[in-house]
Amino acid sequence: METRKVQVTGGSTYTVSIPKTWATDNDVSAGTEVEFYPDGDSLFLSPRSEEERTRGTLDVTDLNGQALTRAVTTMYVSGFDIIELEGPKITTEQRSMIREAVQSLVGLEVLEETRDRVVIQDLLDSSELSIHNAVTRMRLISLSMLSDAISALAEHDHDLARDVIGRDDDLDRLWLVVSRIFRATLRTPKAAEELGLPREACFDYHSSARQLERIGDHATKIAHLTLNIEDPLPDEVVDAVSDLHADAVEVIDTSMDALFAEESDEATRLANEARTGVRAIDERVRAIDELLRDLEPARAQLLGLVVDSVLRSADYGGNIAETALQKAAPTP
């Protein structure tokens, strides 16, 4: 760390010198324009970039299958606007995996394809993306998936279960968008300024979005389990699981309301209410376990996994409540 003394020039202008090592490393010299971003009692300085779009190049010679898909996804989440995939010869299989990756990511399109090169570009204006809207959408999708998964179980509806499984891709796409936005705010204060949110709030949204994505995963798991249940379930078991689901949804909804609350007192009240709800759900789960003892072992095991997924979803809601409490706490 280096320190500098603030000086006054011309009677009204405050000036401070910048470290030469930092200036050299970042190509800052006489005449270079820099940008300032206020953040509370801090002021961030960054060299002004002439290039508005970040470009990244990846050698895909030895990448195939899911490894190639993950590589493209990683470049996207890392914040590259233009992704150039290169190799001596890009195979048909590689092109298929690249297209699959592009289709799973919001805003990406293939702009150029040659024998040894594929260029992908993010066509969305990052300044128009809203992490708040993305998380709000994730909330709606994850809760509808969980609700429909329980309905599919109760009604023995395999078509609805398959529909829930299909919706998981939509939730994953939004999760990757949130991750991309969040990483951008860590990389440059300009991204946080364009969002109109402090970086701590972006962290809270990102943390909560991760919990919502996991809730969607458990809804998908319940749907898969439903496909393995051949006969309708006893009414008392269906009612018990439905009641457990209703309690879990109450926890998740209350936690999200706490996260989005503008007043700290309201956020704290709602978050504590959600945490209390998680503890109450534990008691309900023990009662359901008693019902499962009377079922055939294989069926009881499947339903036990369903109950566990609903319980874990409530726990993820509790995690969101913890994040809301931290967000509402006084800032040091």
Automatic annotation (TrEMBL):
The transmembrane segments are none
Give the organism the record lists.
Halorubrum aidingense JCM 13560
MF annotations from Gene Ontology: DNA binding
Tell me the superkingdom of the source.
Archaea
In the record, what lineage is assigned to the organism producing the protein?
Archaea, Methanobacteriati, Methanobacteriota, Stenosarchaea group, Halobacteria
Annotated SpoVT-AbrB domain residues: 8-53
Concerning SMART domains, the annotation shows:
SpoVT_AbrB
Q: What biological-process GO terms show up in the record?
A: intracellular phosphate ion homeostasis; negative regulation of phosphate metabolic process
Q: Write the signal peptide boundaries.
A: none
Protein name (record): Phosphate uptake regulator, PhoU
- Matching InterPro entries: PhoU, PhoU-like_sf, PhoU_dom, SpoVT-AbrB_dom
